[in-house]
Amino acid sequence: MKMVKSLILGSAAALVAVGGAQAADLPVKAKAVEYVKVCSLYGPGFYYIPGTDTCIKLGGYLRAEIAVNTNSVYTGNTSGPGGANNRFTNGYTWRSREDLNIDTRTATEYGVVRTFFDATFTWTTDNYGVNGAAPGATVYAPLGGGGTVAPASAPNNAGAGNGSYGTVGVYYAFIQFAGFTMGKAVSQFSAPWTNYPGNIYDGLVGGGGTVTGVNQFTYTAEFGNGVSLSVSAQDQAAYYQAGVNNLSAGGAYGLSDYAGTISPDFVGMLRVDQAWGLFQASVAAHDNHAAYYGGTELTGHPDDKWGWAGQLALSIKNIPTGPGDTINVQGVYTDGATRYNIQDLAGGAGANTIYSGTGVPGLYQSVGFGFAPDTVFVAGGQQQTIKTWGFRGGYTHNWNAYWNTAIYGAYAQIMYNDTSKTLLCGVGGVGGTVRTTFASAAGTGLTSCNPDYNIAQIGVITRWTPVKNLTFSADFVYTHLDQKYAGVVSAPSGSIGKPAALYEVKDQETYQLLLRAQRNW
Q1: Which of 89, 244, 460, 496 is placed for a possible disulfide with 290 were both Cys, Cβ 3.0 to 4.6 Å?
Q2: Where residue 442 falls among pLDDT bands split at 50, 70, 90?
Q3: Lowest pLDDT segment from 95-104, 119-128, 162-171, 213-222
Q4: CA-to-CA distance for 432 and 470, rounded, in angstroms?
Q5: Is residue 259 part of a domain?
Q6: In angstroms, rounded to a whole number, what is the distance separating the alpha carbons of residues 346 and 375?
Q7: Is residue 238, in this structure, part of any structural domain at all?
Q8: How far is 328 from 199, CA to CA, in rounded Å?
Q9: How many CB atoms lie within 10 A of CB 310?
Q10: Is 151 exposed, middle or buried (0-12, 13-18, 19+ CB in 10 A)?
């Protein structure tokens, strides 16, 4: 009996153990999987970030391009090794770039909160290393990093000198909320097409730019029917300082003599955006804040000088020449705010020195000059503003769904006042910083000393889009420098292969061709 009882209890314990083990193996109900959902509130390409009410869109492009007869991609041979027109001038410059942008939007009781970020990863090849860097060296630097580049032919946005290099650039990084834009975005002064009324060439004069964004704090009021008004404070240091040139510091045009930052630029913009096109009026105030006449505080300094700029822009869509055809035009006037006309990517950006041949016996070559700071001054004097005006425009015609062509052009005129011309050229053509720097041998010299100059540009581009978001383009542009000096100058030796010799001063010209393949996604 005792044995039977033990058998029963043992069997029961075994059944309980087996049942417990089987229960442990039973499937547990899983949490629901959160699939990515389409967000249709803000247009195609947006998705909800799982677990949130925020929509996100990823985008960008991959671009491969080659620029012919230029040392940059793609601003023109108007200065430095490009303007030398010698063995330092590139026959081509090659570049590959990946752009990545991230757009997020969240609906709130105050309206949509938006963040936008755009960065580029770029590899540019030049012809050889400089400053001790080996060809093929890689450097990661902010866009527009600068650095000493002569005598080598340095591409646009070079970081530390090198022949082939990579850069990481932050184009845009801003927050929009309740009408405010805070961060790095295109200037409110610029037209919606920035530097591109019909082209892909970066270096047009005749209007505001900041293609890669400028730090700003902006409020935009929407009035309905496409009418809006924006007021903005934006950083001037990165892209809007053309120079406050101290002529007493040496050289023909002196040296730029900026003090620390003291005031942002202030911008106002009124826009009317309709089905027929767009009209925009922009104004800007720009403070020129110079440092000292000499090396210490005891030497004194000039007073601040406020400059200003005004611009009108017009876009006409769907004109009778064909579906999607467009005309974009704009005109600008500046006084002590040169960068709102000669924008930061415009070739030498207001510092043009172009060489070519000459037919005058006994002279080495010819050279053309064109410099456009915001102001000039001498020790003990006040700042004298430089005035400019200009325009740019483009007409785009669609031949069919796959091909289109645009013709475009730009023009700018730079004007010095009488006081500035006296400081540069002297009284009655005697003395002055330009004449002193370019003093020539007996019997030669400048027969006309006038720092005013004009720049004219004209170009044509054709694009082929065989499939959606894949475009091949060819853009050719011609630039003419119409400078007002005449005669012969004794130019000092430079770091771009030019000897100290006598040069004829005359107008100059240059041209470039850009071939590009781009896939947007």
Answers
A1: 244
A2: low
A3: 162-171
A4: 55
A5: yes
A6: 19
A7: yes
A8: 11
A9: 18
A10: middle
Query: Which residues, in sequence order, are bridge partners of residue 134?
Result: none
Domain total for the chain?
1
The pLDDT of residue 296 is 94
d(CA 379, CA 295): 11
Query: Residue 146 and residue 153: Cα distance in Å, rounded?
Result: 13
Structure tokens at 140: 């990661």
Written as one string, the DSSP assignment of 461-487 is: EEEEEEETTEEEEEEEEEEEEEE--EE
d(Cα 488, Cα 504) in Å, to the nearest integer? 5
Q: Judge whether 171 lies within some domain.
A: no
Give every CB contact of residue 75 below 8 A, 6+ residues apart in sequence.
Answer: 156, 202, 203, 345, 346, 347
CATH of the domain at 410: 2.40.160
Q: Report the pLDDT value the prediction gives residue 4, as an integer from 0 to 100.
A: 40
DSSP string, 135-165: TT------TT-----TTS-PPTT--SS-SEE
pLDDT of 129 above 60: no
Structural domain includes residue 166: no
Q: Give the dihedral sign, CA 146/152/155/161.
A: negative
Distance between CA atoms of residues 244 and 228, nearest Å: 34
How far, CA to CA in Å, does 116 sit from each of 167, 171, 184, 232, 257? 21, 10, 9, 18, 35
User: pLDDT tier at 39 (50, 70, 90 boundaries)?
Assistant: very high
Both tokens of 222, joined, read 């929407």
